TrEMBL record:
Gene3D superfamilies in the record: Hotdog Thioesterase
Name this protein carries in UniProt: Thioesterase domain-containing protein
InterPro entries linked to this entry: HotDog_dom_sf (IPR029069), Thioestr_dom (IPR006683)
Species of origin: Sphingomonas bisphenolicum
Pfam families to which the protein is assigned, alphabetical: 4HBT
Residues covered by the Thioesterase domain: 62-135
Length: 158
């Protein structure tokens, strides 16, 4: 893994600096202003996103809309994979979803895990866990290196 640039004042170096920079990138994405969520990366190939859902994210039948499942599963899997790549932003090329239970209002956790790949294409999976510890959704994605250097993205390491 190429070592990331150190960011002044971050207090972190190497791998830890990369993880903190990815967490900042997540927070800086405009789409995340729509979600009360927080990304944590503590080790390579794993990520956790804790988020809240409420009635504002429901479809007409009174349960959380599938876009929330996709967004959080994709993000958790993506950041698990991108935690292994410190020079380029990854792009989702495919994602498969399994909805196992409806999500009720409350705190949900998306847990991402890298599965395979270390060059051009990465495979990662994620699970959604509700406040009772039950899995409510699962997804697997493929991600590939983009032309965008992470260091060129405004939120990376800010």
């Amino acid at each position: 893994m190429t070592q990331p640039e150190l960011h002044p004042g971050s207090g972190a170096s190497g791998e830890a600096a990369h993880f903190r920079a990815l967490e900042n990138l997540y927070r800086s994405a405009p789409i995340n202003r729509l979600f009360r969520s927080d990304l944590t990366i503590r080790e390579p190939g794993r990520s956790v996103i804790d988020f809240d859902v409420d009635e504002s994210q429901f479809h007409a039948a009174g349960a959380v809309h599938g876009t929330v499942y996709f967004k959080m599963l994709d993000d958790a899997a993506f950041y698990a994979a991108n935690s292994l790549v410190s020079d380029r932003f990854l792009l989702t090329t495919a994602f498969n979803l399994l909805f196992t239970r409806p999500i009720a209002p409350g705190r949900i956790r998306a847990e991402g895990r890298w599965i395979s790949g270390k060059r051009r294409v990465y495979v990662a999976e994620a699970s959604l866990i509700d406040s009772d510890g039950e899995e409510v959704g699962r997804g697997t994605g493929t991600f590939m290196r983009s032309q965008f250097p992470l260091s060129s993205l405004p939120g990376y390491g800010a």
